[in-house]
Amino acid sequence: MPAKSRFTRLDAFTKTVEDARIRTTSGGIVxxxxxxxxxxxVWGEWSDYRRIVVxxxxxxxxxxxxxxxxxxxxxxxxxxxxxxxxxxxxxxxxQQTGVKHGxxxxxxxxxxxxxxxxxIKALDLHxxxxxxxxxxxxxxxxxxxxxxxxxxxxxxxxxxEEVREAYAAVSWAFGKGEGVQQCERExxxxxLEAQRDQGCRIEGGFRVxxxxxxxxxAPGRSFSNGMMHVHDLNNYLDLSQGSxxxxxTIHHLRFGPQLPDDLMKRIxxxxxxxxNHHLNPLDNTEQSTDDAxxxxxxxxxxxxxxYYPLGxxxxxxxxxxxxxxxxxxxxxxxxxxxxxTHQYSVTSHKRSLRGGTDEGHKERLHAxxxxxxxxxxxxxxxxKVINREERPKTFTGFLTGVCAIIGGxxxxxxxxxxxxxxxxxxxxxxHQR
Length: 433
Known about the structure:
- This protein is α+β, with helices and mostly antiparallel strands.
- It is about 25% helix and about 30% strand.
- It has nine helices and 16 strands.
- The protein is elongated, with a radius of gyration of 36 Å.
- The protein starts with a helix and ends with a helix.
C-alpha cells in the first residue's frame, strides 16, 4: 500500500467538496463576529502576558552585620539651633553624640515673623573667623579640662567651641561662657541671646547599626556621667523662661532609601498588589505644648523590606551588604535596580517631666524627671518582606491561551451558525406546507 494511503486513513480532519458547502448570510455575520471576538480576547491575553505584578513574600531576616540609614526632617519653631543636639545610641554600645555628618540645621525666623529659613552663615556662633587673626604663638586656656582631640592647635583651646568640647568631654556644664576669654571675644553669650526667639529645622540622614537603638533630639551638649547619658540643660532652662518648648512638626521620617518617583507611580496603580508602605506613618505629624520640660517618645517597629525589579537576577547580585563608604542617601540602592529599605509602624507617648496625672485619667501617674526632647526608640523585626516583580504567565501560557481562545470561539460560533441554519431550514419547510 502506498505511503500516502496510510496517512490518509489517519486524517482526523475530513473535508467536504466545494459543491457540498452551503454559504449563508447568517454564517457570514457569525464569522465576522467571531473574528472580532477572537481579536479582542487575544489582545486581552497579550495585555495580561505583558502585565507586571508584585509578589510579596515573608521570610526570616537572616542578615548579619548590616547597617541602615535614617532620614529625617523635623522643625522646632520655638527652639534655636544652638540649643539642639542629635544623639544616637544602640544596644551594641555604639554612641554618636552631637551628630553633624549628613545633618543640616536650618535656622528659622521667629514664628510671629512667619518661621521662614534664615541664612545659616549669618548665625554661625562658632566660625573660624575669630581665631584666624590670632598670634600664631597664642595658646588658649581650656579652663580646667584637657584640650579636646579635635582642637585646631594641640593642647590648646583656640575658640569657644573648643572650650565647650573640652567641658563636654569631662562631663562639666558650660553655661553661657561667662569668664571664658574665647567666648567673650566671639560674643557667644550675646549671639545666643539674639537667637532666643528663633526656631530650627533639622534635616538630613545618618547611618546606624541594624540593631535595637534610639536617637533623640534634646537641648544642650550631651555627655556620659557614669552609666547615664545626660545633657547640659543650663542654657535651655536659663533662656527658656516659658518661651522655649519642644513643639515640633515631623515633616518626614523614613528608614532606608526612598523609592524613585517612576517606581512610586507603578506600585501606586490599582493593578499592582504591593502596599504603598512608603507612606511613612509619622510624616506630617504635629505636636504642640506650652511646657518647657516636656518629653515626646515614639516607639517604632522597623521591618526590613526588599524590592526586586523584573529581571534583576540577570543584572547582578543584590544580596551583598552595602559598603559604609557609600554616601548618605545611596545606601541600599543596588546596581541591578534592587532596593533594600524598611517600613515601620509607630506608637507614641508624651508626658510632662514635672509628673502628675493625665487629664481625665487620674489613675495614670507620670514619673518626675528626665530629659526634655523628642525621642525615637526603634526595634528591629526578625521578619523581612520581599517584593518581587513577576509576570503572571509565561510565553508558553500565552500561546496556550491564544489557542484556547481561537478553538473555543470557533467551536461556539459553529454551534451558533448550525442553530441558525437548522432553524431557518425548519421554518422554510413549515411555510412550504
